[in-house]
Design goal:
Its cofactor is Co(2+); Zn(2+); Mn(2+); Fe(2+). A divalent metal cation 2 binds at residues 105, 168, 201, 232. Monomer. There is one protein chain. By secondary structure, the protein is α+β, with helices and mostly antiparallel strands. It has a single domain (7-243), classed as Creatine Amidinohydrolase. The protein has helices at residues 7-30, 37-50, 117-135, 143-156; strands at residues 54-55, 67-71, 74-76, 90-99, 102-111, 160-161, 167-169, 176-180, 197-200, 203-205, 211-213, 220-222, 228-230, 233-236, 243-244. The protein has a 5-stranded antiparallel sheet. Strand 4 and strand 5 form a beta hairpin. Helix 1 packs antiparallel against helix 2 (37-50) and helix 3 packs antiparallel against helix 4.
Amino acid sequence: MIYKKSERELAYMRDAGRIVALTLRELEKVIKPGVTTGELDAIAEAFIRRQGAEPAFKGLYGYPASICASVNEQVVHGIPGARRLQEGDIISIDVGTVLNGYCGDGAATFPVGTISSAAARLLRVTEEALGKGIEQAVAGNRLSDISHAIQQWVEDHGFSVVRDFVGHGIGRKMHEEPQVPNFGPPGRGPRLEVGMTLAIEPMVNEGSYEVQVLEDNWTVVTRDGKLSAHFEHTVAVRDGAAEILTRP
């Protein structure tokens, strides 16, 4: 069942989403060659808690950290640790928060120092694909209109969208109905209604869309070892343009 949120609930989600956005902004300031992903995790957790919120990911399904930190060929769910970032890397940071019983979820991929033009193009197209999906999150559209818009933009630019992991509904729980794939034909799935809240998150690969999970049972990597990027916003469906809840 897809649960529609009241204006009061959307206000709570807006507060949680604002902390997600501010956390990503704080991390962007310190992402540079030499910093470890574990240090980024500690900075994020401390910042989230200072805002009066809880890290939503820590302990979720047994996940051990407050952020997901996925470097280069890592797609999602990279566990922060001792790995030091190097010049030319890209790093996808996924952040979740809980405040007043409601969740926020957002992600962005950042350059580490100076990156290649090919990597920069991957980041740009992925962020643009997120925007194309959000444009379709309008009352009256079908859920797959979001999926199709993302896939079309990505593939028109020569990249591929991950099939094995998708976006999701969000609210009191981090993962609610419906699933929000980043691929598929338009005009299918439930009709979008005012008050639905979705975490839209294209995961875009430089090469093939095929992925695999490493032995830690969390970290997802591209099967061909090529780069991957990830951008995400939590949005609320409105009559007009969707409202992005994960903004500062």
